[in-house]
Design goal:
alpha/beta; Rossmann fold; binds magnesium ion
């Protein structure tokens, strides 16, 4: 993101011909550009999509302009905000592989401040076709760059694997938000993801930060949940969110109605916890780069 910002504002610098103006333009640019957050964990069913949809909706409720990008061929984020894969024409696949403009894929949702780049099953083809494209790991970053000044947050819902789509999301992102289920294999999965983040930093995106680690479907009654949570907190003391998402039936139900929890059951514990998370994300601001 940083390079692109500098590039955009170079033009401004030339016309101003003044170093102070140049610095001011870069600072202003960074305030105007969306923060791009990949929501990733290669483990399946840990709460990535539930977090992408409901954090996006909660940030939108706080009048932050949010673009939710569905980078998973399962298209669960798309259906979670009312646009099931079978109903959409242009998707992220078309922007990544077919040279369609990303803007043309953007759909409105029931929330004024929330827009969606949808997916459908075609996106699984991107796995095969992206390797033929130049700079294949940077493709999502390239296509997103034209819309970054229109949003405060871009949230990318990643598939449950460390495949080309996830690597594209990590290359396009300023930071990674990691939803975690506090169970036996969680730490092993987390260390694999942290290794991948380090590799992406080394090869493509040196400033990729960890936005935060979020405990999802948390059940404080079990010893195992509490032990795993304590272990993760000891390894990443500054990264684990205070907010914990409890297991909540209403959160599990809302996707089948094509609605974020905010529009399905705003008084539920699930909804309140995602609103609290959004506030924590806003209050924390941009995380320090590594
Ligand atoms: P995948 O890896 O397949 O993309 P995921 O990591 O995106 O999965 P979700 O789809 O968000 O995970 O969640 C998996 C299932 O658990 C879904 O049926 C979802 O509705 C349910 N679920 C997620 N979070 C909660 C919660 N806090 N309470 C109850 N059910 C939840
Ligand atoms: Mg998902």
């Amino acid at each position: 993101m940083g390079c692109m910002m500098a590039y955009n504002y170079d033009l401004f610098m030339v016309s101003a011909g003044n170093f102070t103006w140049h610095v001011a333009a870069i600072v202003l640019g960074s305030l105007l550009m969306a923060r791009v957050v990949a929501i990733a964990n290669q483990k399946g069913g840990v709460g990535k999509t539930t977090t992408a949809v409901n954090l996006a909706a909660s940030l939108a409720a706080a009048e932050r302009r949010v673009l939710l990008v569905d980078a998973d061929p399962q298209a669960n984020s798309s259906s979670g905000v009312g646009h099931p894969g079978f109903s959409v024409e242009l998707t992220l696949y078309d922007a990544l592989v077919n040279e369609c403009s990303l803007e043309d894929t953007v759909l409105p949702t029931d929330l004024e401040y929330l827009s969606l780049v949808p997916a459908n099953a075609d996106l699984s083809g991107a796995e095969v076709e992206l390797p033929q494209v130049d700079d294949r790991s940077q493709r999502l970053s390239q296509v997103l760059s034209s819309v970054l000044d229109r949003y405060d947050y871009v949230l990318i819902d990643c598939p449950p694997s460390l495949n080309a789509l996830t690597v594209n999301a990590l290359c396009a992102a300023d930071s990674v938000l990691i939803p975690l289920q506090c169970e036996f294999y969680a730490l092993e999965g987390l260390s694999r993801l942290v290794d991948t983040i380090a590799r992406v930093r080394g090869s493509w995106n040196p400033s990729l930060a960890i936005e935060g680690i979020l405990f999802c479907m948390f059940d404080a009654r079990t010893n195992l949940s509490r032990e795993v949570a304590a272990e993760v907190r000891s390894h990443f003391p500054d990264k684990v969110y205070q907010t914990v998402i409890p297991r909540n039936i209403r959160l599990g139900e809302s996707p089948s109605h094509g609605k974020p929890i905010l529009l399905y059951d705003p008084v539920s514990r699930g909804c309140q916890s995602y609103l609290q998370l959004a506030q924590e994300v806003i209050d924390r601001g941009a995380p320090n780069a590594p």
